[in-house]
Amino acid sequence: MSPDEQDLPATEELALARLALADGDLAHAATHVAGALAQAPTLPEAHELLARLAAAGDGGLDLFPLHQNVFVGTVVARAHLLAAAGRPAEGLDLLVAATGHAPTTPWAEVPWVTAPDLAERLDPDRTARILMQICAATPDPVPRAGRAALTPYLALARNAVTVHPEHALLLGAASALARRIGEVALAVRWATRGVRTEPSKIGEVWLGYAYRSAGRIRDALAALERAVAHDPDDLAVYADIAGTLADHGRLDDALAWIDRALARDPSFDCAVHTAHRLRFRRDGDVAHLVALADFAREHPDDSHEHADLAESCAGRPWLGQVTPAVGPLADALRAADGSGGTLRSASPTPPSALRTLAGAVPDLRVEVTGGPGPDPREPRRATTHRLWRYDGTAVTPAVAPPSPEAAEHLRQFVHPAWPHPPAAYDAAVALATLDLAELLGLLAHPPAAPPTGLGRVLDDQDPALWVRSVQVWTCLGLLHHRTDEPWPTSTRRAVLLDLVWGIEDWTTEAAAFALVTAAWVDPAVRGDVAAVVAERLADAAEVARTRPVPIAASLGHLALATPDLPTAARTLAYRLVGAPPPGERAPGGLRRLWHRLVTLLRRH
Q1: CB distance 524 to 535 below 8 Å
Q2: Cβ atoms within 10 A of the Cβ of 591, count?
Q3: Could you say which DSSP state residue 501 is in?
Q4: What pairing do the DSSP bridges indicate for beta strands 388-391 and 364-368?
Q5: What single string gives the DSSP state of each residue in 239-263?
Q6: DSSP letters along 267-326, please?
Q7: Mean pLDDT of 589-595
Q8: Alpha carbon distance 314, 319 (integer Å)
Q9: Distance CA 488, CA 524 (A)
Q10: What is residue 160's three-state secondary structure?
């Protein structure tokens, strides 16, 4: 669309462009042509009007100037005019920039890009650099749906390789593009020819990547090792080798390569990130990920963006997502069909679960039978800030509801997953403007899920998860409350501790996660947080000796995500989550063998 207009269909943009051109208003016509090209970059009528503008405006380049925050349609129009003016390399540079802006749009699907004579007019070094720019601007690999938009560039690569069949840099860059868009056999062929023509480190890297995409792992590793022989100081290749080995089950060999890299440069970012990720994969100790987060915080200017921490945390309880609620009420919420009746539970019922179930199934009556052990309706320790008030078994919030503005502000970005704890902390800064009363109100009066795809899925499949997500983000917001106060005496710490030691509830877990997150982002509070988590875990385990504690397993997962947790607490956490500590686990092969032996014994 035009940068100064509402979104118009390409045909309307062209109609306005024709009117402006008829009036001699070339600048106005150029604006609408750019708008049409942005929406329909291959539309013949748009290119016809662009040619008329070029004829009327001395080539037309002045009508499409480049400036800061330039409109993509302007960039594309100028690219085509540059090509028409005999400057195709500059035009390709601009098309590549447009591709980086919107990779799935067919900006280059025009005759001049795929014409065989273009490769003849371009210097092969320049063509290679253009192909490398395309690779840098697109994902690796390119999703299937986005590959068609890049096929004109592949046609350019084919034409260039035909004209310059022995140009090693061009062959390697062409291989990299072909591999990204699924032409793996072609990528192997071009990269092999490039290395044969002129052996080099980058050539072997391109060949190694091509082999790896083709599933020829042994050949891939051999090529990457030859790249190391060319340049033993390029530690990024060491990390590539380690990643490839780890992805194919050779974790010890992968770590050996990473150790070689770190011996050369202990601060090299690719090696450090890969090392921590692989060590965590080996033993599951969160200390590796915490060290990685510390490294990332202390080295904000890494050579490129890394995803090792997010990859390691993805899908893991509390490291990358809210842990689903457990217990009879949580099960009833997931199975709720709106009908009434009576639900009897011998397990303690978190107040948040009772309130959520009452909202989802108003006609359902819940009967909680008492049992041995500490009263779950009472805080585990004396607290100042209380969220809930009991009248017998009936529970009501003890705090006022938040304002509609606060509720709407929160639900705009609530999500049950996050890349990693430091990222969740950073995102929650948006709640720093809410006062304490609003935050406490949000915990006990969570807003309804929004009418979005995510909101509808959670409403239909697990209403509890939405409420728990609200409570998690609200407690993360508490971390940003009065951050000028020293941690030991701060309001944020005091309130979170009250929630951790209050009535057993989903908010207990949310507050504990906020404390754990504080420890991830601030090494100075790690000892304090680890002690709190260890004490709360021990208390839950002690209570669990006399009655069920629905949040116990979740607290165990939270403890395993806690920096600097004492060894005894870590062992207890593994017991509560139902898994043995890593040191006590048999190797995978031995576990499978033992399972087969037990099965055979049972048959006889």
Answers
A1: no
A2: 11
A3: T
A4: unpaired
A5: HHHHHHHHHTT-HHHHHHHHHHHHH
A6: T-HHHHHHHHHHHHHHH--THHHHHHHHHHHH-TT-SS---HHHHHHTTSBTTTBPPPP-
A7: 39
A8: 7
A9: 10
A10: helix
Given the structure tokens 């060590």, which residue do they identify?
279
Q: Nearest to residue 323, comparing CAs of 223, 175, 472, 123?
A: 472
User: What band does 478 get if pLDDT is binned at 50, 70 and 90?
Assistant: very high
Pair type for strands 394-397 and 388-391: antiparallel
The Cα 563–Cα 528 span in angstroms is 10
- Nearest Cα neighbor of 228 from 236, 220, 219 is 236
Average pLDDT of the segment spanning 148-157: 97
Residue 43 C-beta-side C-alpha neighbours within 13 Å: 22
| Average pLDDT score over residue span 98-105 | 94
Q: How far is CA 384 from CA 489, 496, 500, 524, 595, in A?
A: 14, 11, 12, 25, 52
Q: Is 368 helix (H, G, I), strand (E, B) or coil?
A: strand
Residue with tokens 């005091």: 494
Rounded to whole angstroms, the Cα distance separating 271 from 294 reads: 15
How many CA atoms within 13 Å lie on the side-chain side of 92?
Answer: 27
d(CA 224, CA 209): 8
* Structure-derived torsion over alpha carbons of residues 69, 70, 72, 76, reported in degrees to the nearest 10: -150
Residue 479 and residue 374: Cα distance in Å, rounded? 30
Give, in degrees to the nearest 5, the angle at Cα 370 between 366 and 372: 150
Q: What is the pLDDT of residue 67?
A: 87
Share in percent of the chain as helix, strand, coil (round to 5): 65, 5, 30
Of 358-367, 538-547, 565-574, least confident by mean pLDDT is 358-367
pTM: 0.83
Which secondary-structure segment (H or E) carries 408?
helix 404-411
> How far, in Å, CA of 83 to CA of 50, rounded?
12
Name the amino acid, one letter, at 451.
Answer: P
96 vs 342: CA distance, rounded Å: 64
Furthest CA-CA distance within the chain = 95
CA distances (Å), origin 237, targets 94, 308, 356, 474, 599 = 31, 16, 52, 43, 45
CB distance 534 to 559 below 8 Å: yes
- Cβ atoms 507, 471 nearer than 8 A: yes
Amino acid in the structure at residue 89: A
H or E element: which one contains 341?
strand 341-345
Exposed e or buried b per residue across 382-400, where buried means at least 16 C-beta atoms within 10 angstroms of its C-beta: ebebbbbeeeeeebebebe
Q: Torsion-angle region of residue 562: left (phi > 0), alpha (psi -120 to 50) or beta?
A: beta
Task: Collect contacts of 331-338 with beta carbons under 8 A, ≥24 apart.
Answer: 332/357, 332/361, 332/364, 333/357, 333/360, 333/462, 333/463, 333/464, 334/461, 334/462, 334/463, 334/464, 336/360, 336/361, 336/364, 336/463
Give the side-chain half-sphere CA count within 13 A for 561. 31
